[in-house]
């Protein structure tokens, strides 16, 4: 076997819901409903494949700028999805987590998120992370703010700030780095998603709209991932030499 062929952490930008709805002449917001339904089989498939963490981008910090009717619909869908996921997480023994700035969320939604996290905190088969009101730049700035407060309080020196101490303050600090980052919908950008955590992620882009993205296409990407050489700054010879040594 080459390097770890199963990604520990997969992150997905679930793009294309609105375009799917328009292409199929669905009522306003129905594309997002189809997108919500598309997540369940992906979660189950990742669980079967031995993925440790699946992180999905449900609502970005920039999405607040969308029309209010769409934002309200998305918030309602998020609440409905969380209520649906809690019993599913219990069935499959999956921990549910949320990352993002919760200050702009309604009290009811924030409470529901906290409740879901508490109810599933002891599960260890896999972690499903839902990014709500999340932005990678916000994440990094928030970590820097925390370290600055520690320095100001005399808990650490400025010279103690390092990549490691920053990493410890990031969202998902307790999870492995992102191995695979997938974007559906045909766009070729990562849109401020997990900028720190995906520093060495393998990137996958597909024109498939999120509601049409299925396990077969995910398997194709995972097969490609297994055959990619991940060097992490080293030379190909160094990586291949390490693999040979590990196989002896």
TrEMBL record:
The lineage of its organism: Bacteria, Pseudomonadati, Pseudomonadota, Gammaproteobacteria, Moraxellales. CDD domains: Cis_IPPS (cd00475). Its cofactor is Mg(2+). Its EC number is 2.5.1.31. GO terms for molecular function: ditrans,polycis-undecaprenyl-diphosphate synthase [(2E,6E)-farnesyl-diphosphate specific] activity; magnesium ion binding. The active site is at 15, 63 (proton acceptor). Belongs to the UPP synthase family. InterPro entries: UPP_synth-like, UPP_synth-like_CS, UPP_synth-like_sf. Homodimer. Binds 2 magnesium ions per subunit. One of its GO terms (cellular component) is cytosol. Pfam families: Prenyltransf. One of its GO terms (biological process) is peptidoglycan biosynthetic process. This is Ditrans,polycis-undecaprenyl-diphosphate synthase ((2E,6E)-farnesyl-diphosphate specific). Mg(2+) binds at residues 15, 202. Keywords: Cell shape, Cell wall biogenesis/degradation, Magnesium, Metal-binding, Peptidoglycan synthesis, Transferase. It catalyses: 8 isopentenyl diphosphate + (2E,6E)-farnesyl diphosphate = di-trans,octa-cis-undecaprenyl diphosphate + 8 diphosphate. NCBIfam families: uppS. Catalyzes the sequential condensation of isopentenyl diphosphate (IPP) with (2E,6E)-farnesyl diphosphate (E,E-FPP) to yield (2Z,6Z,10Z,14Z,18Z,22Z,26Z,30Z,34E,38E)-undecaprenyl diphosphate (di-trans,octa-cis-UPP). UPP is the precursor of glycosyl carrier lipid in the biosynthesis of bacterial cell wall polysaccharide components such as peptidoglycan and lipopolysaccharide. Substrate binds at residues 16-19, 32, 60-62, 64, 66, 183, 189-191. It is an enzyme of class 2 (transferase).
């Amino acid at each position: 076997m080459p390097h770890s062929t199963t990604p520990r952490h997969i992150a997905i930008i679930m793009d294309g819901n609105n375009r799917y709805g328009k292409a199929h002449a669905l009522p306003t917001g129905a594309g997002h409903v189809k997108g919500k339904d598309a997540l369940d089989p992906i979660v189950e498939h990742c669980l079967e494949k031995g993925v440790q963490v699946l992180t999905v981008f449900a609502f970005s910090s920039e999405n607040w700028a969308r029309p209010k009717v769409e934002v309200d619909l998305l918030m309602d869908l998020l609440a409905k999805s969380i209520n649906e996921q809690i019993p599913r997480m219990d069935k499959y023994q999956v921990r549910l987590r949320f990352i993002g700035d919760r200050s702009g969320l309604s009290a009811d939604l924030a409470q529901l998120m906290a409740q879901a996290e508490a109810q599933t905190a002891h599960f260890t088969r896999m972690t499903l992370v839902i990014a709500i009101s999340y932005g990678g730049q916000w994440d990094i700035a928030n970590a820097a703010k925390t370290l600055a407060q520690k320095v100001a309080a005399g808990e650490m020196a400025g010279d103690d700030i390092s990549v490691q101490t920053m990493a410890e303050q990031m969202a998902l600090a307790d999870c492995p780095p992102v191995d695979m980052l997938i974007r559906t919908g045909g766009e070729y950008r990562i849109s401020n998603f997990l900028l720190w955590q995906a520093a060495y992620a393998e990137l996958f882009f597909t024109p498939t709209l999120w509601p049409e993205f299925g396990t077969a296409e995910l398997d194709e990407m995972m097969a490609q991932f297994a055959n990619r050489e991940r060097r992490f700054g080293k030379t190909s010879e160094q990586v291949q030499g390490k693999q040979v040594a590990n196989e002896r």
